[in-house]
Amino acid sequence: MNAEQVVQKILAEAETEARKILDEARDKAAEQGSQLDSELAEFGAKTDQLAAEAGEDKLQRMLANARMDNAKQLLATKVEILNDVFERSKKAVNELSDERYLSWAMATMKQAVESGDEEVIVGKDEKRIDSNFVKKVNRELGTGFKGNLLLSTERGDFAGGFILSRGKVQINATIDVMIGTLRESIEIELSQLLFDTE
User: Fold this and answer.
1) What is the pLDDT of residues 72-126, one digit of tens each?
2) Distance from C-alpha of 56 to C-alpha of 8, rounded to nearest angstrom
3) CATH T-level fold of 97-195
4) Rounded CA separation 32/11 (Å)
5) What are the structural domain ranges in the chain?
6) Residue 151 phi/psi, 5° resolution?
7) Cα separation, 13 vs 174, whole angstroms
8) 129 C-beta neighbours (distance < 10 Å), count
9) Whether this model's pTM surpasses 0.85
10) How many Å apart are CA 48 and CA 165, to the nearest integer?
11) CB neighbours (10 Å) of residue 164?
12) What integer pLDDT is reported at residue 64 of this predicted model?
């Protein structure tokens, strides 16, 4: 073999080797590209899943907040309605006819009296519970009581009802206190009656 043939043979072998290396590189690039495509697809799917979960989580939080806001608003409305009911009750008692109001005051005062010598404090605008009414209560008290109730010169800052005072002891039978006590005892039942839809 002459030198040119040797060179041609070396070149042919080099070309074959270069093709082989190039084919291997192409195969490896294709394999890596396929793996990369697979990883990208997996990453994309995971990203979509995370985005969907985050969106669902955000939606659930938004719904929970909306439900909480609605519940607060509903509770505030219920409280407002109950307040209105009890305010109307106070007003209704104060607007009773003189006969019915004094009948209520008589029964309440007779029940509230402890010794019979208390002072009767009325509200600053009270005109129906007067000294004649207190005298009538004294006559009605009967045995076991002194029947010495006195209408106090002191006037209270309340509308309707009265306070019986003896020394440091006071029995508060004002409309505000009595309706407040009634409210405590029936508010849950009244709330259920007004607002339960079942």
Assistant:
1) 887 787 778 777 877 888 888 888 899 999 999 999 999 889 888 899 999 999 9
2) 70
3) hypothetical protein PF0899 fold (3.30.2320)
4) 31
5) 1-95, 97-195
6) -80, 120
7) 118
8) 22
9) no
10) 77
11) 21
12) 83
